[in-house]
Amino acid sequence: MEHIVIIGNGISGVTLARHIRKNSDKKITIVSAETEYFFSRTALMYVYMGHMKFEHTQPYESWFWEKNKINLKKGYVKKVDSSNKQIIFSNDEYISYDKLVLATGSKPTKFGWPGQDLEGVMGMYHKQDLENLEKYAPNNQVCKRAVIVGGGLIGIELAEMLHSRKIPVTFLVRESSFWNGVLPAMESEMINRHIQNNQIDLRLNCNLKEIKSDAKGFVKSIVIEETGEEIECNIVGLTTGVSPNIDFIKNSTIETNKGVLVNRFLETNSKDIYAIGDCAEQRQAIGNRRAIEAVWYTGRMMGETLAQTICKNKIEYKPGNWFNSAKFFDIEYQTYGWVFPEKNSTSYEKHFQWKHQDDTKCITIAYHKDSLLFLGINTFGIRMRHEVFDKWLSEKRTIDYVIEYLADANFDPEFYSLYEKDITSKFNQENGKSIQSRKKSWKRIFTKA
Q1: CATH number at residue 431
Q2: Containing domain of residue 220, as a range?
Q3: pTM exceeds cut of 0.85
């Protein structure tokens, strides 16, 4: 019986195992050093905030694995021996495989700061990070202040977590505005204000110089590089991004760059070895997507795709139209297609923007300035339907079409306030003539043609 070994029990590895089992009777072993059972990584913040218990983050009961004949092995893999088709554990135990899948996810990125390995310094990615947070920041009596370094999505989640326990937070962001490498200026500046309105001490244009220790080896303070200011704190959250967790294969025959290099079929250069999820790097990026995508839904899609290949139905990984979602304290964020910040936008990209007067709701629609082709949309504080925008992007609709039918995409319940009328009015004002008059112009052109 063919033995499939999967290193990593995150969304990628578990999705792969489930779909292999649906389509075959192959022997499956999932290896993980983090936890015995799969859990929802994105739910860790809600455990700390008291909305659920850790066991609630496990989508499957403990009997699920035995019933579906998926073997679970807890252990740390130190080496892959591709010539003998074995993985070697830290205790020198080994497992043989017929096909091996690397689904080892990410690890927090560190930049060699003095004190970065002190007690009380942590990321917010693994279950062990949650355990450290409970240990060093259970309340505002034990933790008088926390410092978060890095202005991405993990950083904002950690700020909200600590804020929920009334722990004062200083947030160091090296950019001039929060996440302005991703968001257009209007959106980024709105999120700045929202962070500050939640009593977070947001420090822009700030870099960490060092983390100082007390006499017992615990975090005592941090020093800001630009000003030399020292801020006393009890924990430091390093949320400056993640990198593929692949140190254990650096000396193997498997080709790597930042991640494990794979083709469109998620195959590595080594026969019968594949990589999926956060640790996989496309040799050639797919469209505007990054070569490495540390996003849960792409990891799930890779697992589903590779399962077909392993079960003799070889297919390419095709992730489709880009989308993502997040939450900035009370503001929900969604993005569909591509909306680039002004400094990274293409010469043909034009933005239509609308913001509500309460400063918690806005949209940015990107479109081609000549063809009016709809390129993408960011929404804040207004929930939209994924399937509608996915359809419009695939159908190559225009900005006029999107504005006219925007209400069809609104996911908010009918008793919520709706803003399509205001959005349409602003669009018409900025464009000098209404959508209807533009339609008439097009109709005359097509009739003459």
Answers
A1: 3.30.390.30
A2: 121-240
A3: yes
Residue with tokens 């097009």: 442
Q: Is residue 385 part of a domain?
A: yes
Chain segment 272-325, per-residue pLDDT in tens:
999 999 999 999 999 999 999 999 999 999 999 999 999 999 999 999 999 999
Write out pLDDT tens, residues 178-188: 999 999 999 99
Tokens of 151: 């202005």
* Maximum alpha-carbon separation in the chain: 84
- Residues 219-246: pLDDT tens digits? 999 999 999 999 999 999 999 989 999 9
| Domain identity same for 50 and 138 | no
In a domain, 114, yes or no: no
Q: Final residue of a domain: which of 310, 344, 367?
A: 310
SS3 assignment, position 328: strand
Position 120, amino acid? G
CA 310 to chain centre: 27
Residues 99 and 31 in one domain: yes
Instruction: Reduce the DSSP state of residue 203 to 3 states and report it.
Output: strand
Tokens of 425: 């009015």
Strand partners, 221: 212, 232
- Asked whether 165 and 141 are in contact (CB, 8 A), the reply is no
